[in-house]
């Protein structure tokens, strides 16, 4: 559906990406913009960035399952602006049918660390308690009752700067689901640049030129808010309202009762 978007880019292999983009400890900077801008944004990136290609495919389907406590401890920590915030998830690369457990920690210096462990397809079907061996290395010992809270689907384009250590991901039309609820942002792109130092981010300069400001609302928190009418989100209200306007409220497809 989106394959034509990456035509004309220099191709980057997964091996080359892994060799150059060792950004497990990095600054993550997020932006959102309407999908109507995506062609122009990509055109401006072709000279300086290469696109990840695997088996002649440059647009990849992702599925991410987020875990939290029944009280949404990790969501509440983010909403309260706590440092050392944690996201706990299982990521599936749908095209490759590979699965990883992941923990993302944002420390009090604003740096994001990501820890991951591969699991088999059979292991990926296990309940959250089966992953405690990995998750318990990073989360408080008092948290032992993790549950499946949110599933996120999207299509991703991954770009790497040709000379700088700078990776950009473009997540297209994210869909959030839990139980019988669903919210689809069909006209939204969530961009994230991953860099060692913010000052060297070419993508940030491009966003500034297009008058697009950085946003701090994570996909997990966006999904929780989108599917839960009663959740407190005062500190996210400005960000959430901007995302709804960017997507165009009439295009938000939701099954929320």
Automatic annotation (TrEMBL):
Chain ranges of the VTC domain: 25-227
CDD domains in the record: PolyPPase_VTC_like (cd07750)
Species name: Limnovirga soli
Protein name stated in the entry: VTC domain-containing protein
InterPro entries assigned to the protein according to its UniProt record, in alphabetical order: VTC_domain (IPR018966)
Classification via Pfam families: VTC
Domain of life of the source: Bacteria
């Amino acid at each position: 559906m989106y394959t034509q978007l990456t035509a004309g880019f220099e191709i980057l292999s997964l091996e080359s990406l892994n060799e150059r983009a060792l950004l497990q400890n990095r600054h993550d900077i997020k932006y959102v913009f309407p999908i109507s801008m995506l062609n122009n944004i990509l055109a401006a990136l072709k000279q300086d960035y290469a696109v990840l290609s695997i088996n002649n495919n440059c647009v990849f389907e992702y599925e991410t399952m987020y875990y939290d406590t029944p009280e949404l401890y990790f969501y509440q920590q983010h909403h309260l602006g706590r440092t050392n915030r944690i996201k706990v998830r299982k990521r599936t690369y749908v095209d490759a049918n590979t699965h990883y457990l992941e923990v993302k920690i944002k420390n009090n210096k604003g740096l994001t660390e990501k820890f991951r462990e591969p699991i088999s397809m059979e292991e990926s079907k296990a309940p959250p308690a089966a992953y405690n061996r990995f998750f318990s290395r990073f989360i408080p010992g008092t948290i032992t009752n993790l549950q499946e809270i949110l599933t996120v689907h999207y299509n991703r384009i991954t770009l790497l700067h040709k000379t700088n250590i700078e990776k950009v991901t473009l997540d297209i039309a994210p869909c959030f689901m839990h139980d019988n609820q669903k919210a689809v942002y069909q006209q939204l792109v969530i961009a994230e640049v991953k860099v060692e130092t913010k000052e060297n981010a070419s993508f940030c300069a491009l966003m500034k030129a297009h008058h697009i400001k950085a946003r701090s609302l994570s996909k997990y928190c966006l999904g929780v808010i989108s599917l839960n009418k009663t959740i407190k989100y005062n500190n996210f209200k400005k960000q959430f309202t901007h995302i709804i306007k960017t997507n165009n409220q009439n295009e938000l497809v939701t099954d929320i009762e």
